[in-house]
Each structure stands twice: as C-alpha cells, then as structure tokens.
TrEMBL record:
This is Glycosyl hydrolase family 2. PANTHER family: GLYCOSYL HYDROLASE (PTHR43817), HYDROLASE, FAMILY 43, PUTATIVE (AFU_ORTHOLOGUE AFUA_3G01660)-RELATED (PTHR43817:SF1). GO terms for molecular function: hydrolase activity, hydrolyzing O-glycosyl compounds. Belongs to the glycosyl hydrolase 2 family. InterPro entries: Galactose-bd-like_sf, Glyco_hydro_2_N. Keywords: Hydrolase, Signal. Residues 980-1066 form the Glycosyl hydrolases family 2 sugar binding domain.
C-alpha cells in the first residue's frame, strides 16, 4: 500500500465509521478502572505540580574530591530551579583523581551529609544498586559471578579400559557439571589442530601459526588496500573434509542488540542508531591443486555488544573436501573506519558438523536470532541422542575417568561452568569487581547485602533512609549457566537437558531442527530465570526494605539473553532511556511504558537526556521530552548531573569528559526553571487516569527479545500501540467483549502479532481462546512452534492453525471464529477498517519520523486528556477527530501553565477539534462536558498585527567573562560572527537594552514580544519588571500587563551556551582561560554554537477571542 492509498484508507476509517462510544478504560461496565481521577484533580496537579512529579537527576560522584560546600551548592541549585530529587550514584568515566575510596570513613561522612542536605532543602534522595553499574563488586567471587558453560573433548578408540584425567574444560577456575560420551567416526572429529597442516601467510613479518594457536591475544593484520587479499594457507598434504570453521576476531561496529531502535518503516533487515552492517572478513576457500580455489563460505564479522568480551564465531557449511584450504581476507571494513586493522586468532577448521553461529543460539553472545543457516547434515554427521552415555558418576573429583569403552570411536565431553569474567563498570576503583550471577538468588542477595543494604541501614540509623534504589542497564555480556540451572530447565520445560549439553557447545543432537528447538528452550529458560531470580529478587529485597525500586531491566543494550518486557514487569518502576543524540525519538522508552501498561504499573520511567552536551539548548532537550511524553512516559531521571566540588570553576567536573551538563555550572542553569516546570506539568498530568492504547503488538518470545522497529507492522496514523511478550499475553490478557482486557483496567482494541511469527503452542492456544471469546486479532499464519517442548503436541498445533486460519494457506483473509475475528495478510490499516476500529485521534500529518504529530491519550473519570506534539519543522493546522462522546475541548499549555478554549463540534463519530500547533509545539487537548465559556481561544497567529523593532540595540557583555562591556548592535547579529573575539567566544548572559514607544493594549488584545531567532534563552524585562523567560516555541513573551503609554524600557537578558567560551579558551594558555573543565571537553577547532538574537524582534498585537 502506497502513502496515498494509506491516507485514503485512514480517511475512510476516520470519517466513515459510526460506532457506539463507550466511556471507560474498557467499556462502561468494566469494574476495574484503576485511576478515577477527575478533571479538577488534573487541573490542580497541572497548575501546581507535586514534587513527586518533578524530574530527578542521577547525581554522579567519584570523578573528583568531595566537599561539603559543593554538596550544598548542588542540592540548593537543584531545588531552586525545580528539580524534584537526586539519585546518589558513584559513576566514574575519568581517572577519579582525589576521589574518596568508596565505603571509606570520609565517603560515609559525605554520603550522610548529602542525604541530610537533600532532606533539608526538600529533595527526594535515592541510591544506586552498585558502585558503578550495574550489580557487582569485590564481594562477588568467581563462583557468584556470571556463569557460562564450557567443555573439553577427547576422542578415544573403543574396546579398551580407559583410565585418565580428562582435559580441563576451562582456562580458569571451573565447576564440573557432567561427563558424556557418544560414538563418532574419527574422520568426522578432526581439526587443523589434530591434523597439523602446513600453514603459510603472504603477509611479511607475520607467523601463520599464530592465527591457529589457542591463546588469549589475537594477531593483528594491518590495514590493506581495497581489493588486496591477505592469504592464510593450509596444506593438509592429503584430502581433508571440513564442515565448519571457528575463529576469534576483533569486534567492529555496534551490535544490533545494543543499537537504539528509532522510529521508521518496516524493513527486511535490522536498522538502528549507530548500527552499521559490516562486510565479511573474507572467504574460506578450497582447492585440490593449491592454484585454483573455490569459495566455501563467507567469514562473518562479530559486532560489539555492550561490554561483551565474547569474540568467537563459528560458520557452518556442507561438507567440502580438498587438500588445500585458505582464508582469503580482504575488504573487512568499510571506508572511513577508524580502526581499519583486524585482529584474528584461534582459527579452527574442523570436520565436525556444528550449528551455524551456535555461540549466539546457545546464549554465549546476545544477538537477535534469525533463520538457522545450518546445512541439512546427514544422520552419520550428527550425534544420535540415543547413543549418548552419561559417565558423570565415573569421574572422580580430580577429573580422572575410568570407563570400559565399547567398540568404535568415542568422544568424551567434560562439561563445566566458569565465570564469564563480566565486570562491573565505571565505579570507584576500590569497589570494582565482577558482576553478580543474574540467575542466582544467592549471588543477587550477596550484592544487595554488601552495597545497597549497607547504605540503607546506615542512613536509616540517622533517620535518613533513602526513598528508593535505582538500577542502570546491564552491560556486562551474556551468561547461559548458573548452579542448579539443570533443575530450573527441567521444572520450566519438562525435559532433561543433559543429553543436549553437546548442543550448547554447538554440536548437532538428533537433527538440526531438534537442536535448534532445544536452544530456543534454553534461551527462553535463561530469560525467564533472569527475570525471576535477578529482577524479581531485587524487587523483593526492596519491598522488604520499604524503598522504591526503579530498574532498566535489562536495558537498551541487550547484551543479556533476556526478555526486556518480562523483566521490566518484575520491577516497581520500569525504566527506559532516551539519548540527546536521538533528535527524532527512540523506542526504548516505549518498552518501559508498555511494561507499565501490561503489568499494571503506575509509573513508566525514563533515563532522560543521556549525554546531553553543553552545546544543546533547553529547546532541543524539550524536543526529546515531547517524544517521551507521547510514548506515555511519566517520570524523568536525568542522565546525568555531574557533582561539582568547587564553587569557582566553570564548567568544573565534566563527568570524565561526558559533559553531564545539567548542573549549576551551566550558563543556562539559573534560567532553567520553566524547563523543569514544563516537565513537572507534563509528568503530573500523564500520571492521571488510565492510558488509552488501541493496539497491543506481540513481539514474540524468542530471547533476546525486545521492541524492534524493522519487525513492526506499518501502523496507521492515529492509533497508539504497546508491545508485549508471551507472559503478559498469556497470563494477564482476556477477552472482554471485543476488546483485550487486563486486570488493572487496561484494554486494547486489537492484538497484533508482528511478522517474526514466533508463536509457541501456549501462545497459539491463548490467541485461539481470545478470538473464541470475542477478541479481534491480526496475525500471520504460523508454521510451527520453535520450542522442542511443543513437538509432542505438533498435531494439536496444526489443528489450531487450521481452526483459526483455515485448512488452506491463504495469503490474506478474515475469519470469524467463535465470537471474535482474525485478520491476516492485508495491511493493518485495512484490518482496522474492516474491524470498525476508528483511530483514537483521526489525524493526517506528515507521518514520517521527521514530520509527524505524535499523541498520547489518558482517560479520567470525567475527561479525556490527549498529549499532542508537532514534531515537525512546519506548523500543523487541521481538524482532528477524537474518539470520545464528550463535547468541549480546551488546550492546556505546559510551557506557561495556562489553558485556552478550542473550537470543537460533536458529531456521531466523536469530537472534531480545530487546533493549530507551531513547529515543535506541544500541549494537552483536554476534553470534557465542562463549560469552556470563560476561556479565550488558543492563539493561532491569524488575527495579528506585526511591527519589527528597528534601530540600534545597546548590548552589554560582561567583562568578567571576556566581554567588551557595552557595545552597539545596529543589526541583530550572531555573536559567533562578530569580529570582536570577546563577543565571538562569549559565554554567559548579555543584556540587550532598548527604549520603545508603546500604547497599552486594547480590550481583548495582547501585546506580544516575538523572536525570529533566539539563541538560546531570553529573560524579558519591561520597565524594570520581569515579564517571562523565553526558551522554546512559541518564542514569545506577553508584555501586556507591563506596558505603559509612551516610552518603555525593554531589557532582554540573553544567555548562550558555555561551549563558545571553552572553545575560545582552548587556544589560550591555562593562565589566561576563564573556564576550567576537568577533563577538557572543547577544542579550538570545534564549531561555535550560534548565540544571541538574530533576525527580527517583533511587537505583535494579537486579538483575543472568547470561545463563544
């Protein structure tokens, strides 16, 4: 469907359907509406936001020394501008010079003082779960750290009494699990290490043998010209049959699991922020004569998952025989790569049949699971599970095995688990350590008792118990084992995993399909245990301590094999994150709000404005906030605000070079109160009532699993949506009439199954039940369950598929089953139209990530509240159709705290509301039956008279910040274009002054001061009285109450970015600098940030019109 057809369908949905309008979270009779707030309560919150709705900050410590005066100054500054609370968080990205050791006497003294000062000034005070992130320390031994399976293998001849110590399965401390044996043909268990071919390389100065030795350090291949190959040759001197190749290689580019999913269209392949698809390293080739080579397979790259140490990959291929093999390495990086060299090692060319890229499928490395590319090996090439012999009881504690070996060749595999070595990150040096085991209640409790509990207990003894504990995203790689994992697996999946242990090391047991189905169950069990034993345990501990718990569980950088939606459902406040660089939004926060909705949580939290720079304005940050509110987020916690120990250094600590600029040393700080008030109004109102969301999209349950943009359907404009995985779908959702209902009062109009078609039997059963009971579902026809657990019920599976989709596989269709309806194949917009589900907001905008009107809907007891944001460079002016039976509309402006009337007319299909939004403007449409007669209409810039302010401006640049003092601007000019270096590199406040002749505004008229371009914030004064602070759209101040007839004295304090002064100072000796950054974050060659007033300043006389 092209865009024009989509718009036609949308208009048909908006205008053509007439339905009876229900008015509650689900329907008029639904008994469980969780929040029955009224419009009066909503206005009270909006006009006077509660402290709990105010944005908090992660207050990063550990980069510098700690001073009492710095603590007091920071906390008083937060309170002064309207921040609601702090999270005391030791996070260090620099050297941490002069920082107190964690848990030292001085550290405890400063923590207590900070908590007492926060209480004194009226800020909430929370703590982080760990020193740095995310949950580790020196108390986490290797046995309590993250674990993975490891194994050694030995091939022996049969018909002998074997007695020997088996090879050690790990490189370090390990714990035995099992010993298994199975028969093989010896020629199918060979590698280059056993056969010892002659190896050579055409690269001068490089030992070819180094690429094949088992060692920790890889061999570096220097950059090569495009098209030039590095050849690593193997001559076996006789025929050798290969089926797989394993290697370790340096990682390149961000992994898909670590890339932020951003708004965009459905696609065939993954895309995301900072993800760049990489080329192959080269090819494996084979030859009979050493001259003419043919391709065997591409050698695939490894991507950098968040802090993952795993760098091994296996590529499988059909059996190929030859005397000569070679690695033809070329063009392994893209043009412009900052690290064009390649490190390679531990290469093993093998005759063993293995699962293609088994390291990912077995959970050693977290990557989204795609189609299994393993060849269809014959029965002779794989392990028959019936022949596997358990020898565990025959091995002593010293590793010595005694066994009477049957006839034939046998492989003995010794399985153990070992620490992954995943470390905690970015904490104070003395408390760094290993990350705790994410599947072990003992390990998680040990972490809690040694860090958070100590802080809570200590502060509680002086009546300063923290309000909560927060938890950052996991970034320490994957794990696939824990002590007792075999019992967890048996309990959850109903079958023993021991005969499938070889599959966890990549070998094929039974068949490729059987092995892959087991690995699916393995990953699902890992994800379930992480949710229960990690996040569930932490929530239980927080409950016992009577503190709030906010957790990213597991986080956008999904380096664990986890289920993000399920994990977030285990915690009190699920949290996502949005970064300052994603100016068109990102979807990690959509997971947090979805988890809040599907698991009945009141708060959907967000790590906010991550890595914002001093160069970014508050207006730019507001753009990010607007996307988050439209995603139904209702709590912000800034990442981050760097603790400032000094009172006379600007910017002072830059958080190890990360900026962390939202602190008292930012030039904007004392002008930022409206920015924080804006957030409090939005968050407070977004907590009222119940969310209204039409679509719940089932994104599968194949870990690692999260919301992936490229797999989403094309969602027509005007419908909000959540995502879920199998647990919430099957345990919390039921049909309520034609809607999908949850026990907390949340309802959806349609369940949508995304294209990846991951539908195990219990999900299929539940979907069938929903449809039978009246639910509306849009889902592609599944082929089969991916779970080995479900294979015994394959007949039932096929029967259910035929019952729902029909016996014939039809590309597109609609079927009524029981009381409900199933749609598939057609565009989602068409299915919604056929189902009679009109948009919640009938609207037509640009509908692209860079030009779209976003909205979010909350339902109160007596009103509907729609947050609306014009994320577009152009104005939006149209009539929107709201799916409500209420009759009047008003506009609540969170920038000013004022409310206006909106023209509206009630028709059969809902309320049609006329609204105009400027570029970047956002606010709330509030619909009720309350009279709006006393309200003035929202200004539209139509009934206006404009006059440009002409003539010279007196501008004062403070000499203390390098300014020249008083100067004259005949034309309003960008400071960075000025010839005077004191103005070009000026940072801080400059005061524009001008006398203007004005007449007072007439009745029903306002006199407005409007800026074409204001870089970055202006505080307007008229006749010595403060008018307002102008910091975002609509870039204007209302002068009306302050005007006198005749001459008026206009002053505008304009504050710009601190970056320009730092850039100017970068070319000066330290003794002449006005700024001090620890560490430095600016270079003399950096681009200056546009500053000051440019373009015209307008006097606008605007006619006010009452709504009637």
């Amino acid at each position: 469907m092209n865009k024009r057809q989509s718009i036609k369908v949308l208009r048909r949905i908006v205008m053509g359907s007439i339905l009876t309008l229900g008015y509650s979270a689900c329907s008029p009779s639904h008994p469980d509406v969780a929040d029955s707030a009224t419009i009066k309560e909503a206005w009270d919150e909006f006009s006077n936001p509660s402290d709990s709705a105010r944005t908090k900050v992660w207050w990063f410590h550990g980069e510098t020394e700690t001073t009492r005066e710095g603590i007091t100054a920071d906390l008083e500054a937060y309170k002064r501008v309207g921040v609601g609370g702090v999270v005391y968080y030791d996070q260090v990205h620099g050297k941490g010079e002069h920082a107190l050791p964690a848990f030292s006497a001085g550290w405890w003294e400063m923590l207590k003082f900070a908590a007492s000062e926060a209480k004194r000034v009226g800020l909430s005070f929370e703590i982080n779960l760990s020193n740095g992130y995310v949950a580790g320390g020196p108390w986490i031994t290797k046995a309590l750290s993250m674990q993975r399976l490891t194994a050694s293998d030995t091939i022996i001849r049969g018909k002998q009494q074997f007695a020997a110590v088996l090879p050690v399965p790990g490189d370090d401390e390990f714990w035995d699990i099992a010993v298994l044996a199975f028969p093989v043909s010896q020629n199918q268990w060979m590698t280059n290490n056993s056969q010892r071919p002659k190896v050579t390389c055409n690269l001068p100065g490089v030992s070819a043998e180094d690429f094949f030795r088992k060692k920790s350090r890889l061999t570096t291949i220097p950059p090569q010209q495009s098209g030039k190959s590095v050849y690593i040759n193997l001559d076996f001197e006789t025929s050798f049959t290969a089926r797989s190749i394993t290697y370790r290689v340096s990682k390149r580019s961000k992994a898909s699991t670590g890339a932020m999913n951003v708004p965009g269209a459905p696609a065939d392949e993954f895309y995301g922020s900072s993800y760049v698809k990489q080329p192959p390293l080269g090819q494996l080739e084979v030859s009979d004569d050493g001259i003419n080579y043919s391709k065997v397979c591409d050698l695939k790259p490894i991507y950098q998952a968040a802090a993952s140490r795993w760098d091994q990959k296996t590529v499988s291929f059909p059996a190929v025989t030859g005397r000569y093999f070679r690695l033809n390495l070329h063009d392994w990086c893209l043009a412009g790569d900052q690290r064009p060299e390649m490190a390679l090692g531990n290469v093993a060319l093998s005759s063993r049949a293995r699962i293609d890229q088994w390291e990912e499928r077995a959970g050693f490395y977290s990557e989204y699971i795609l189609k299994n590319l393993t060849p269809a090996y014959t029965d002779e090439e794989i392990i028959d599970p019936k022949t596997i012999v358990d020898l565990t009881s025959k091995m002593g504690t010293d590793g010595r095995l005694e066994w009477d070996v049957p006839e034939g060749d046998w492989v003995i595999m010794r399985f153990a688990h070992e620490s992954t070595g995943g470390p905690s990150k970015h904490g104070r040096a003395n408390l760094k350590g290993l990350e705790c085991d994410k599947m072990s209640v003992e390990a998680v409790t040990t972490q809690w008792n040694n860090y958070a509990a100590r802080m809570i207990d200590t502060l509680s003894t002086i009546n300063l118990k923290p309000d909560g504990v927060i938890m950052d995203s996991h970034e320490a790689g994957a794990q696939n084992w824990t002590p007792g994992f075999e019992q967890e697996f048996l309990r959850r999946k109903g079958y023993d995993l021991f005969s499938y242990l070889p599959a966890m090391m990549g070998y094929i047991v039974g068949s490729v399909a059987e092995t892959d189905a087991f690995l699916y169950d393995l990953r699902r069990t890992v994800a379930d245990v992480i949710s229960d034993n990690y996040f569930g345990t932490l929530q239980t501990l927080c409950n016992k301590a009577d503190v709030d718990f906010t957790a990213q569980a597991t986080g956008n950088g999904l380096s664990l094999v986890a289920d993000n939606l399920q994990a977030k459902g285990r915690v009190q406040k699920p949290q996502g994150e949005f970064w300052a660089k994603h100016i068109h939004g990102s979807y990690d926060i959509k997971e947090a709000s979805s988890a809040a909705h599907i698991y009945g949580k009141r708060i959907a939290s967000a790590e906010a404005y991550t890595d914002a720079k001093f160069s970014q304005s508050l207006a730019e940050l507001k753009n990010l906030a607007d996307f988050a509110y439209a995603a139904q987020v209702n709590e912000f916690v800034v990442c981050a605000s760097a603790y400032q120990p000094w009172l006379d250094k600007y910017p002072g600590s830059t958080g190890g070079g990360r900026h962390y600029c939202l602190n008292r040393n930012n030039t904007y700080w004392e002008y930022s109160r409206p920015f924080w008030d804006y957030q409090a109004r939005c968050a407070g109102l977004m907590r009222k009532g119940m969310p209204v969301v039409d679509l719940c999209i089932y994104v599968g349950q194949n870990p690692p699993v999260k919301l992936l943009t490229y797999r989403l359907p094309e969602i027509p404009e005007g419908y909000d949506w959540d995502v879920c995985t199998s647990e919430a779908l099957t345990t919390r959702m039921s049909a309520h009439g034609s809607e999908i209902a949850l026990p907390d009062g949340m309802c959806y109009k349609m369940l949508v199954v995304q294209r990846n078609n991951d539908m195990p039997l219990h999900v299929l059963r539940h979907i069938a039940q929903l449809i039978e009971q009246g639910g509306v579902v849009y889902a592609p026809r599944p082929d089969s369950s991916a779970s080995l657990k479900d294979k015994v019920d394959s007949v039932e599976y096929k029967k259910l598929v035929a019952q729902l989709w029909g016996k014939e596989d039809v590309v597109s269709g609609k079927r009524s089953v029981g009381k409900g309806t199933l749609y598939w194949g057609m565009p989602l917009a068409e299915a919604l139209h056929q189902a009679g589900i009109r948009p919640d907001m009938g609207i037509v905008s640009g509908n692209t990530p860079t030009d779209k009107v976003y909205f979010a809907h909350r339902r109160l007891a007596d009103a509907d509240v729609y947050f609306i944001n014009n994320h577009s460079p152009r104005p939006f002016k149209d009539e929107v159709a709201l799916r409500t039976s209420l009759s009047n509309a008003s506009y609540w402006d969170p920038v000013t705290g004022k409310r206006y009337g909106l023209p509206a007319r009630l028709v059969a299909e809902g309320l049609h509301v006329n609204i105009t939004l400027l570029p970047g403007e956002s606010g709330f449409i509030v619909v009720s039956d309350d009279s709006q007669e006393e309200l003035m209409l929202k200004p539209t810039r139509e009934n206006e008279r404009l006059e440009a302010i002409k003539g010279d401006w007196q501008v004062y640049f403070d000499p203390r910040w390098g300014g020249p003092g008083e100067v004259v601007f005949p034309v309003l000019t960008d400071w960075t274009k000025h010839a005077d270096l004191g103005i070009r590199y000026y940072s801080g406040t400059a005061v524009y002054r001008k006398k203007i002749n004005l007449g007072k505004a007439a009745a029903n008229e306002e006199l407005i001061l409007r800026f074409d371009s204001l870089n970055s914030i202006g505080r307007v004064w008229l006749n010595g009285q403060e008018v307002s602070t102008v910091w975002c759209t609509p870039w204007e101040a209302n002068l009306t109450p302050f005007v006198k007839n005749g001459e008026n004295k206009l002053e505008i304090e304009v504050v710009n970015s601190l970056m320009n002064r730092m850039i100017g100072d970068a070319s000066l000796p330290e003794s002449k600098r006005l700024t001090y950054a620890y560490p430095e974050i600016a270079k003399s060659t950096d681009r200056l940030v546009p500053s000051g007033i440019t373009g015209e300043v307008w006097l606008v006389r605007r006619f006010l019109q009452c709504i009637n």
